[in-house]
Design brief:
Helix content: 55-70%
Structural class: mainly alpha
Distance between the termini: 74 Å
Number of strands: 0
Amino acid sequence: MKNPKKLILQILISSSVILILLVGLFIFVIKKNGITEFDRKSSDYQPTVVKTEKTTPEFERGKEIFTSDCNVCHKRRSIINTFRMTNGMMNEMGIDYFKKFITNQDSLTNAKDIYATTIKDDYGNLANSHNFKYSDSELNDLIEYIKTEK
């Protein structure tokens, strides 16, 4: 019987040679077939679905309001989460409550309104509150944007 150390050494050398040959063959096949995706840092991916929905003037005005006012604080959190939470509030509490929350959040939290205080807690009890001075038309446009944009 051969020396076990020699046998293990032969197996390791044979395995290494086979592995090197397989890697070389793999690289050769990739280069021969022109596969270069592994060399690029960016992708040529283009989405096949393009959003072509037309928006209303109310939606656009609401988007402007959201971008100029709401996005100042809500960009810290995912905008999608903000829309989900806001749509949830409108579904649960109603649009009239949402309008009060946007224009008089301080009054609601001072009155210990459970929904307003819960949301304030969820946002870390920030010192700022919703006390915007919007017209009914502006509030309706903002609601149009939030309900439509998801």
